[in-house]
Amino acid sequence: MPRPTEPPVDMLPVEDALQRILDLCEPLPAETRPIDDAVGQVLTEPITAPFDIPPHDNTAMDGYAVQSASTDGASERAPLRLRVIGELAAGYLYDGAVGPGEAVRIMTGAPMPDGADTIVPFEETDEQGLRAPGQQHGEIADVGILKAAAPGNNIRRRGEDVRQGDRVLERGALLRGPEIAVLASLGVAEVQVARRPRVAILSTGDELLSPGQPPAPGKIYDSNSYGLSALVQQYGGIPSRAGIAADTIEALTAAIQHALADADLLITSAGVSRGDFDVVKEVLVREGAIDFWTVRMKPGKPLAFGRFTAPDGRRVPHIGLPGNPVSSLLAFELFGRLAIHKLMGREPQPRPVLRAIAEDDIINTDARRVYARATMERHADGRWHARLTGPQGSGVLTSMALANGYAVCPEDAERVRAGEECDVIMVDWEHPTD
Ligand code: AMP
Ligand code: MG
Questions:
Q1: Which of 187, 377, 396, 403 has its CB surrounded by the most CB atoms within 10 Å?
Q2: In the prediction, which pLDDT does 10 show?
Q3: Per-residue pLDDT tens over the stretch 102-112
């Protein structure tokens, strides 16, 4: 067995594997989407403001629009009385002007009336925002001002958020709630975004049953395609499970061709490990331009990557994941997630990495980078602590389900000892069992 300090030459570093995958994933063409259907997609055009926001000076408070000079000398002991000449709700313009000694009762968001240069909030008047039931504004003859107001108080200025002609969102921006709100505030109803990738997910193996089928001797349920489909969806793609292909050349060839017809990315699981004679490898070599890699990581060492030609001539990238459930999901998390980002026009966004105290040993037996599934918690000492989620075998799927981070033992270290610091890749900030 090689010692961790002597890296095996035939293993591909994780970063190189990722780079080769990303190099073959091109952003998909743009489509026009209504803004409320574009969440999670990426702009292919910059957005420029067609007008100022706010479009007019307006009040930030409920109160009275007045001339500041009319409030000079006002105090609680000696309120200054101003004549109320009207009332203005948000959405309307005041038809007139505020003169000396006058006030317009005004609601948050309403445009500043001509003549007024400050807002006295209700709290600084003797009105307190209260009004007798059924009383109309015309019946409030005057109001007492309890405090002098400087010019410009409580006014939101035209253009203070965005100026006409500003570039508000850049090409490549991910549309989340706030970006979509910005688009709506500009009156934009539709945007150009990169299409979401359609990801076909094909399981292979004679041993596999689909959930819902009765259990059978020697068989196991296909968990990979379900887990992968969920992750594809979570990361912005449109998954389509292409079923289970039996371990024959004919079945697998047909299943792959069928899956490719409608896919921007093909994911297969199983049949790529070195030394097994699974037919997947044979078909991949025959039908696609595929490399088989031994990636310097654990779990997830065997990985196939290349491109197939779809029936319509498109070159579709293919990630051939290992069969072991943990390896499969973890390799997808590291490579597939970023491939989806690239396909959907996003700058690939690696997960944040925290330094944490390992609560358990993480052992590296063969000079690969170990990704140990861990729960991350912030302790009273203010530090993050990573506790492993039980046995770490590549078939122990529950070790993934309990984890919100992957604690890393570097390829050139024999172990991370409990109590030492390590890097942890955060996959979820929330604790999955909380
Ligand atoms: P293979 O890569 O075909 O040698 O498979 C490695 C291991 O992963 C075997 O124990 C398979 O039974 C298991 N496996 C393969 N495909 C799946 C799947 N879709 N769901 C769950 N386990 C699988
Ligand atoms: Mg197999």
A1: 403
A2: 80
A3: 999 999 999 99
